[in-house]
Amino acid sequence: MPIGIYEMRVQMKININSRSVYYFSMLLLCVFLSFLFSTTFSFGQDNLRKAEKSFRDWSVFISKKEPKMCFIASQSVKGEAFRNNQKLSSVNREKGTLYIIKIMNKDSEYEGTFYAGYPLQVGSRAILEVDNKEKVVFFAHPSPKAKVEKEHAWAQKFDQDKLVNYLKKGSKAIMSAISHRNTVTKDTFMLTGFSDAMSELERRCEIN
After folding, report:
1. What is the count of structural domains for the chain?
2. Less crowded by CB within 10 Å, the N or C end of the chain?
3. pTM here?
């Protein structure tokens, strides 16, 4: 994996009229992360240690080598799928995963990303609802080509602080998304340990 991936990603500028730059930068990140997810959630790869520490439902990961990369992640504890308002007994997909990436050299700045485990509907919105009251929108890629582009959705930059604050205060979050086959999925994430994991992330991933 190219060494400059993370460096390129953190230089991105995000606004409503420049999402193409945002998606390209996120693609570079997700190429890296998807390689990790393709084996096991333990992230036991050559360029990463296993989880530095786990706090109930959330685990902290720090890269071994430069460029340094730090994030916390959690897999869904329950996954449901619906088509035509009917619940499906089973679907062919991996578990959904929610992760918060620390932006290096930026104090208290993060990026929220959702790995769906299947191709999302092009340009669709995934809604993360915390404790049935607070919501944050994640956006699927508007013109995906690579597999990783199809399977991820990202929160907007201006929603990142709100996202982290909601997750810190909440107990449960449900991500509703739409697949390329118009299947609606709902992934449930437990938030126990999220605040502790974020504190550990800040401690272990200090600004240079």
Report:
1. 1
2. C
3. 0.78
